[in-house]
Each structure stands twice: as structure tokens, then as C-alpha cells.
């Protein structure tokens, strides 16, 4: 069987096309997310939020977006949004160390640190 033998299987072609389209959308979402990050770093917060909204319309699982929305909400001292974004992040990327580092930052910011002493 050759490299392109899957072309004889219409179902495989559909799967490959779908996978290609998903990758293309993911790249587009990541590009928009990075543009939003640059906007937020330049203190264009409202424009950054708009871009992040566009990203989530394309890719509801975009980790970059949830991380930066979390950080932006912490800068605004918005506890409710911070925890909401952290919960989304934990749902989407629970095994990433940065997710748990961000939880510690949120807890510290809002004085909700977990404490082993509380469990004694």
C-alpha cells in the first residue's frame, strides 16, 4: 500500500479532511489568541477581551485564552471571574503544572490559600 492509498477509502478521506480543518481552525485560534495577548500586554484590555471572545467562538478549548483571561481578571481583582476561568482551565488542562500554579496565585490573591494546618 502506498502513502496515499487512503484516497481509495472515502471515509478515510472525510476523516483526514475533518482533521485538517480542525488543525486549521486551531492555528487560526492560536494566532488570534497571541494577538489578544499582545493587546493585553499593551494595556488594550477591551480589545484583548474582544479578540479572546473571537478565539473562544473558534476554539472553546483554547488554553492560551483561559490562562490570559484568568490573569486579566486577577489584575482587575475580579474574584468571581478569576475562579470561573480557573475552573475552565482545570477542566480543559488539568495535568498541566501551570494550571496548578495559577490556582495558587488565585488563592494567594484572594486570601484563600489551602492550608494543611486547617486539616489537623
TrEMBL record:
InterPro entries xrefs: TPR-like_helical_dom_sf
Stretches for region Disordered: 1-21
Biased segments, Basic and acidic residues type: 11-21
Superkingdom per UniProt: Bacteria
Name of the protein: Tetratricopeptide repeat protein
Amino acid at each position: 500500500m502506498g502513502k496515499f492509498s487512503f484516497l481509495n477509502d472515502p471515509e478515510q478521506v472525510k476523516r483526514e479532511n475533518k482533521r485538517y480543518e480542525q488543525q486549521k481552525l486551531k492555528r487560526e485560534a492560536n494566532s488570534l489568541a497571541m494577538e489578544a495577548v499582545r493587546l493585553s500586554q499593551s494595556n488594550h484590555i477591551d480589545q484583548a477581551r474582544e479578540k479572546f471572545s473571537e478565539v473562544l467562538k473558534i476554539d472553546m478549548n483554547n488554553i492560551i485564552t483561559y490562562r490570559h483571561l484568568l490573569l486579566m481578571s486577577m489584575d482587575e481583582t475580579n474574584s468571581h471571574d478569576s475562579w470561573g476561568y480557573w475552573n475552565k482551565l482545570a477542566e480543559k488542562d488539568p495535568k498541566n503544572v501551570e494550571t496548578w500554579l495559577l490556582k495558587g496565585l488565585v488563592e494567594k490573591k484572594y486570601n484563600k490559600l489551602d492550608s494543611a494546618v486547617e486539616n489537623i
